Fold:
Amino acid sequence: RSVDDETLDPGESAVVSVEITGDEATNFTVVEEFNPGFASVDIVDADGADFSGVRDANDELFATYGDRENVTLQYRVTAGEDVDEDASYRLNGFTQFDADGKEMSVDGVETLAVGSDDDAGGGGGGGGGGSDDDDDDRDDDDNDESDDDDTDD
Structure:
């Protein structure tokens, strides 16, 4: 499972992709569960699923495939508008194979955080770069003079 953005602001959406790769064509169902439920969940691309849907509580979706080996299921989740900025959503999923009833866990991203990732100090990095450039120019001048002084001694 991969996500285009692992940190969401309240009310913001992200697209989640689940890739299933098998050794041979078979029938299977992909189930994704969310805790807590999102404000909305929409299937973006079911990749030709025979059946697919989202539970009304927006806490689970499924897609059933017949005689398939590889699929990529994509869905969009939207965080609630009133969710605390330090909250998180847990993603849990599995694939159940019809032939033998075995379940395989979906690996990858398991948590989407709610909160602004813009507060990580991006502006501070730019300021540091400006200071470094000025220091580099001064250091180069100082180094040239130091080399001249060392040569004269």
Remarks:
- Helices lie at 122-152.
